[in-house]
Specification:
264 residues; alpha/beta; Rossmann fold; 7-stranded parallel beta sheet; globular; binds nicotinamide-adenine-dinucleotide
Length: 264
Protein backbone atom coordinates (compact mmCIF):
# COMPACT_ATOMS: atom_id res chain seq x y z
CA UNK A 1 0.00 0.00 0.00
CA UNK A 2 1.20 3.52 -0.77
CA UNK A 3 2.13 5.45 2.37
CA UNK A 4 0.79 8.96 1.71
CA UNK A 5 2.51 10.29 4.84
CA UNK A 6 5.98 9.77 3.41
CA UNK A 7 6.06 10.91 -0.18
CA UNK A 8 8.73 9.56 -2.48
CA UNK A 9 10.59 12.32 -4.29
CA UNK A 10 9.15 12.51 -7.81
CA UNK A 11 11.80 12.52 -10.54
CA UNK A 12 11.55 14.80 -13.58
CA UNK A 13 9.36 13.85 -16.54
CA UNK A 14 10.45 16.52 -19.02
CA UNK A 15 7.30 18.59 -18.40
CA UNK A 16 8.95 21.87 -19.42
CA UNK A 17 11.59 20.51 -21.77
CA UNK A 18 13.47 23.25 -23.63
CA UNK A 19 11.78 26.14 -21.80
CA UNK A 20 13.42 29.15 -20.16
CA UNK A 21 12.34 29.99 -16.63
CA UNK A 22 12.59 33.06 -14.39
CA UNK A 23 11.91 32.59 -10.66
CA UNK A 24 11.79 35.30 -7.97
CA UNK A 25 12.79 34.79 -4.31
CA UNK A 26 14.59 31.58 -5.17
CA UNK A 27 17.64 31.81 -2.88
CA UNK A 28 15.89 30.71 0.32
CA UNK A 29 15.28 27.29 1.78
CA UNK A 30 11.68 27.00 0.62
CA UNK A 31 9.43 26.83 -2.43
CA UNK A 32 11.44 29.19 -4.68
CA UNK A 33 14.63 27.15 -4.54
CA UNK A 34 12.63 23.95 -4.95
CA UNK A 35 10.90 25.38 -8.01
CA UNK A 36 14.32 26.11 -9.54
CA UNK A 37 15.48 22.56 -8.80
CA UNK A 38 12.30 21.11 -10.28
CA UNK A 39 12.52 23.35 -13.35
CA UNK A 40 15.98 21.95 -14.08
CA UNK A 41 14.81 18.38 -13.43
CA UNK A 42 11.78 18.88 -15.68
CA UNK A 43 14.03 19.79 -18.61
CA UNK A 44 14.28 23.60 -18.61
CA UNK A 45 17.05 24.73 -20.96
CA UNK A 46 17.96 27.79 -18.87
CA UNK A 47 16.93 29.33 -15.55
CA UNK A 48 17.38 32.79 -14.06
CA UNK A 49 16.83 32.95 -10.33
CA UNK A 50 16.46 36.19 -8.43
CA UNK A 51 16.41 37.22 -4.78
CA UNK A 52 16.93 40.30 -2.66
CA UNK A 53 19.76 38.60 -0.73
CA UNK A 54 22.95 38.63 -2.81
CA UNK A 55 25.08 36.23 -0.76
CA UNK A 56 22.41 33.56 -0.65
CA UNK A 57 21.66 34.07 -4.34
CA UNK A 58 25.26 33.38 -5.40
CA UNK A 59 25.36 30.21 -3.31
CA UNK A 60 21.98 29.12 -4.65
CA UNK A 61 23.20 29.41 -8.26
CA UNK A 62 26.29 27.31 -7.50
CA UNK A 63 24.31 24.71 -5.53
CA UNK A 64 21.67 24.40 -8.23
CA UNK A 65 24.31 23.81 -10.90
CA UNK A 66 25.93 21.13 -8.77
CA UNK A 67 22.70 19.44 -7.71
CA UNK A 68 20.92 19.42 -11.07
CA UNK A 69 23.82 19.32 -13.54
CA UNK A 70 22.26 22.15 -15.58
CA UNK A 71 24.92 24.83 -16.17
CA UNK A 72 22.65 27.46 -17.74
CA UNK A 73 21.58 28.83 -14.37
CA UNK A 74 22.06 32.53 -13.70
CA UNK A 75 21.44 34.83 -10.74
CA UNK A 76 20.30 38.44 -10.66
CA UNK A 77 19.76 40.38 -7.46
CA UNK A 78 16.46 42.23 -7.28
CA UNK A 79 13.69 43.47 -5.03
CA UNK A 80 10.24 42.79 -6.47
CA UNK A 81 8.93 45.93 -4.76
CA UNK A 82 11.20 48.23 -6.79
CA UNK A 83 9.96 48.86 -10.34
CA UNK A 84 13.49 49.54 -11.68
CA UNK A 85 14.67 46.19 -10.27
CA UNK A 86 11.69 44.41 -11.81
CA UNK A 87 12.36 45.88 -15.25
CA UNK A 88 16.11 45.21 -14.99
CA UNK A 89 15.49 41.61 -13.89
CA UNK A 90 13.12 40.83 -16.74
CA UNK A 91 15.43 42.53 -19.28
CA UNK A 92 18.37 40.48 -17.95
CA UNK A 93 16.40 37.23 -18.13
CA UNK A 94 15.12 38.04 -21.64
CA UNK A 95 18.63 38.73 -22.88
CA UNK A 96 20.43 35.91 -21.07
CA UNK A 97 17.93 33.23 -22.08
CA UNK A 98 16.79 34.72 -25.43
CA UNK A 99 13.30 35.20 -24.03
CA UNK A 100 11.40 34.08 -20.94
CA UNK A 101 8.86 31.27 -21.49
CA UNK A 102 7.86 30.82 -17.84
CA UNK A 103 7.80 33.26 -14.93
CA UNK A 104 7.31 31.97 -11.39
CA UNK A 105 6.37 34.77 -8.99
CA UNK A 106 7.39 33.26 -5.68
CA UNK A 107 8.22 36.34 -3.58
CA UNK A 108 5.96 36.90 -0.60
CA UNK A 109 6.46 38.02 2.98
CA UNK A 110 4.56 37.39 6.19
CA UNK A 111 4.67 38.38 9.85
CA UNK A 112 2.32 37.62 12.75
CA UNK A 113 0.44 40.45 14.44
CA UNK A 114 -3.06 41.04 15.77
CA UNK A 115 -4.81 43.62 13.63
CA UNK A 116 -5.52 45.88 16.61
CA UNK A 117 -1.78 46.04 17.31
CA UNK A 118 -0.64 46.42 13.72
CA UNK A 119 1.16 49.60 12.63
CA UNK A 120 0.79 50.94 9.11
CA UNK A 121 4.41 50.15 8.21
CA UNK A 122 3.99 46.42 9.00
CA UNK A 123 0.76 46.26 6.99
CA UNK A 124 2.38 48.16 4.10
CA UNK A 125 5.53 46.00 4.02
CA UNK A 126 3.60 42.75 3.71
CA UNK A 127 1.20 44.14 1.11
CA UNK A 128 4.10 45.67 -0.80
CA UNK A 129 6.22 42.56 -1.19
CA UNK A 130 3.42 40.02 -1.44
CA UNK A 131 0.80 41.78 -3.55
CA UNK A 132 2.46 44.80 -5.15
CA UNK A 133 5.63 42.82 -5.95
CA UNK A 134 3.61 40.10 -7.67
CA UNK A 135 1.64 42.76 -9.55
CA UNK A 136 4.84 44.54 -10.72
CA UNK A 137 6.44 41.31 -11.97
CA UNK A 138 3.22 40.14 -13.63
CA UNK A 139 2.52 43.50 -15.27
CA UNK A 140 5.98 43.94 -16.76
CA UNK A 141 6.26 40.30 -17.85
CA UNK A 142 2.88 40.60 -19.59
CA UNK A 143 4.08 43.68 -21.46
CA UNK A 144 7.26 41.93 -22.57
CA UNK A 145 5.53 38.66 -23.51
CA UNK A 146 2.89 40.58 -25.48
CA UNK A 147 5.61 42.48 -27.36
CA UNK A 148 7.55 39.28 -28.12
CA UNK A 149 4.38 37.62 -29.42
CA UNK A 150 5.27 34.03 -28.56
CA UNK A 151 2.96 33.52 -25.60
CA UNK A 152 4.15 32.33 -22.21
CA UNK A 153 3.14 31.23 -18.75
CA UNK A 154 3.09 32.94 -15.37
CA UNK A 155 2.66 31.01 -12.12
CA UNK A 156 1.98 33.01 -8.96
CA UNK A 157 2.41 31.86 -5.39
CA UNK A 158 -0.58 32.73 -3.21
CA UNK A 159 -1.64 30.90 -0.02
CA UNK A 160 -4.71 29.14 1.38
CA UNK A 161 -4.88 32.16 3.70
CA UNK A 162 -6.30 34.01 0.70
CA UNK A 163 -9.40 31.89 1.41
CA UNK A 164 -9.15 31.06 5.12
CA UNK A 165 -9.10 33.07 8.35
CA UNK A 166 -6.25 32.87 10.82
CA UNK A 167 -5.45 35.10 13.80
CA UNK A 168 -2.57 37.56 13.32
CA UNK A 169 -2.65 37.15 9.53
CA UNK A 170 -5.00 39.93 8.31
CA UNK A 171 -2.24 41.66 6.31
CA UNK A 172 -0.80 38.49 4.76
CA UNK A 173 -4.23 36.97 4.07
CA UNK A 174 -5.44 40.20 2.45
CA UNK A 175 -2.30 40.30 0.30
CA UNK A 176 -2.70 36.66 -0.78
CA UNK A 177 -6.41 37.14 -1.55
CA UNK A 178 -5.19 40.05 -3.68
CA UNK A 179 -2.73 37.77 -5.49
CA UNK A 180 -5.63 35.40 -6.26
CA UNK A 181 -7.78 38.22 -7.66
CA UNK A 182 -4.82 39.64 -9.59
CA UNK A 183 -4.20 36.18 -11.10
CA UNK A 184 -7.81 35.83 -12.26
CA UNK A 185 -8.09 39.33 -13.73
CA UNK A 186 -4.65 39.37 -15.35
CA UNK A 187 -5.38 35.96 -16.88
CA UNK A 188 -8.42 37.14 -18.84
CA UNK A 189 -6.38 40.05 -20.23
CA UNK A 190 -3.29 37.94 -21.01
CA UNK A 191 -5.35 35.33 -22.90
CA UNK A 192 -5.55 37.88 -25.74
CA UNK A 193 -1.84 37.36 -26.39
CA UNK A 194 -1.61 33.67 -25.50
CA UNK A 195 -0.19 34.03 -22.00
CA UNK A 196 -1.62 31.80 -19.25
CA UNK A 197 -1.59 32.94 -15.62
CA UNK A 198 -2.42 30.61 -12.72
CA UNK A 199 -1.48 30.35 -9.05
CA UNK A 200 -0.77 27.78 -6.40
CA UNK A 201 -2.16 28.20 -2.91
CA UNK A 202 0.04 26.33 -0.43
CA UNK A 203 -0.95 25.68 3.18
CA UNK A 204 2.09 24.91 5.28
CA UNK A 205 5.56 24.16 3.96
CA UNK A 206 8.14 23.83 6.70
CA UNK A 207 11.75 24.79 6.10
CA UNK A 208 14.55 25.99 8.42
CA UNK A 209 13.82 29.73 7.93
CA UNK A 210 10.14 29.30 8.79
CA UNK A 211 10.93 27.07 11.78
CA UNK A 212 13.13 29.88 13.09
CA UNK A 213 10.59 32.67 12.58
CA UNK A 214 7.26 31.07 13.66
CA UNK A 215 6.27 29.62 17.07
CA UNK A 216 6.67 25.82 17.18
CA UNK A 217 3.16 25.34 18.69
CA UNK A 218 1.55 27.23 15.81
CA UNK A 219 3.41 25.18 13.21
CA UNK A 220 2.47 21.93 14.97
CA UNK A 221 -1.18 23.03 15.12
CA UNK A 222 -1.21 23.86 11.39
CA UNK A 223 0.37 20.51 10.55
CA UNK A 224 -2.19 18.64 12.65
CA UNK A 225 -5.03 20.25 10.65
CA UNK A 226 -3.76 18.76 7.41
CA UNK A 227 -5.38 15.50 6.29
CA UNK A 228 -1.93 13.90 6.08
CA UNK A 229 -0.94 15.30 9.48
CA UNK A 230 2.18 16.91 8.09
CA UNK A 231 3.35 19.96 6.22
CA UNK A 232 3.86 19.74 2.47
CA UNK A 233 7.41 19.33 1.24
CA UNK A 234 8.51 22.37 -0.77
CA UNK A 235 9.01 20.13 -3.80
CA UNK A 236 5.38 18.96 -3.60
CA UNK A 237 4.29 22.57 -4.18
CA UNK A 238 6.97 23.01 -6.85
CA UNK A 239 5.55 19.96 -8.68
CA UNK A 240 2.17 21.70 -8.97
CA UNK A 241 3.95 24.83 -10.21
CA UNK A 242 5.60 22.69 -12.90
CA UNK A 243 2.20 21.31 -13.94
CA UNK A 244 0.83 24.86 -14.24
CA UNK A 245 3.96 25.94 -16.12
CA UNK A 246 3.71 23.05 -18.56
CA UNK A 247 1.53 22.35 -21.57
CA UNK A 248 -0.35 19.77 -19.47
CA UNK A 249 -2.39 22.71 -18.19
CA UNK A 250 -2.81 24.32 -21.63
CA UNK A 251 -6.54 24.98 -21.14
CA UNK A 252 -6.18 26.42 -17.64
CA UNK A 253 -5.86 30.10 -16.91
CA UNK A 254 -6.94 32.28 -13.99
CA UNK A 255 -7.09 29.22 -11.72
CA UNK A 256 -5.90 28.96 -8.13
CA UNK A 257 -4.81 25.43 -7.17
CA UNK A 258 -4.68 24.57 -3.50
CA UNK A 259 -1.71 22.41 -2.56
CA UNK A 260 -3.16 21.79 0.91
CA UNK A 261 -4.59 18.49 2.11
CA UNK A 262 -7.03 20.33 4.41
CA UNK A 263 -10.44 21.23 2.99
CA UNK A 264 -12.71 24.06 3.98
N1 LIG B 1 6.27 28.30 3.64
C1 LIG B 1 4.95 28.23 3.73
O1 LIG B 1 4.39 27.56 4.62
C2 LIG B 1 4.08 28.96 2.76
C3 LIG B 1 2.70 28.74 2.77
C4 LIG B 1 1.89 29.41 1.86
C5 LIG B 1 2.44 30.29 0.96
N2 LIG B 1 3.80 30.50 0.97
C6 LIG B 1 4.33 31.45 0.00
O2 LIG B 1 5.35 30.81 -0.74
C7 LIG B 1 6.32 31.76 -1.15
C8 LIG B 1 7.68 31.25 -0.76
O3 LIG B 1 7.79 31.16 0.65
P1 LIG B 1 8.76 30.12 1.37
O4 LIG B 1 8.39 30.18 2.82
O5 LIG B 1 8.70 28.79 0.71
O6 LIG B 1 10.20 30.77 1.23
P2 LIG B 1 11.21 30.87 -0.02
O7 LIG B 1 12.50 30.28 0.42
O8 LIG B 1 10.60 30.32 -1.26
O9 LIG B 1 11.35 32.46 -0.19
C9 LIG B 1 12.12 33.22 0.71
C10 LIG B 1 13.06 34.11 -0.10
O10 LIG B 1 12.35 35.30 -0.50
C11 LIG B 1 13.31 36.33 -0.59
N3 LIG B 1 12.66 37.64 -0.61
C12 LIG B 1 12.01 38.23 0.42
N4 LIG B 1 11.57 39.44 0.06
C13 LIG B 1 11.93 39.63 -1.24
C14 LIG B 1 11.76 40.70 -2.17
N5 LIG B 1 11.16 41.84 -1.82
N6 LIG B 1 12.24 40.55 -3.42
C15 LIG B 1 12.89 39.42 -3.77
N7 LIG B 1 13.10 38.38 -2.92
C16 LIG B 1 12.63 38.48 -1.68
C17 LIG B 1 14.16 36.10 0.64
O11 LIG B 1 15.43 36.74 0.56
C18 LIG B 1 14.28 34.58 0.70
O12 LIG B 1 15.48 34.11 0.07
C19 LIG B 1 5.91 33.09 -0.51
O13 LIG B 1 5.17 33.84 -1.43
C20 LIG B 1 5.03 32.65 0.64
O14 LIG B 1 4.12 33.65 1.03
C21 LIG B 1 4.63 29.87 1.84
Amino acid sequence: MINLKKPEYVPGHGLIKGKSVLITAAAGAGIGYSAATKAAEEGARAIVISDIHEGRLNSAVENLKKETGLQEIYGKVGNVVVEDDVQALIAYAEETMSGVDILINNAGLGTSKLLIEMEDDEWDKVINVTLNGTMRMTRHMMRVMKERGEGGVIVNNSSVLGWRAQKEQAHYAAAKAGVMALTRCAAVEAADFNVRINAVAPSIVLHPMLRKSAPAELLADLESKEAYGRAAEAWEVANVMMFLASDYSSYMTGEILSTSSQRG
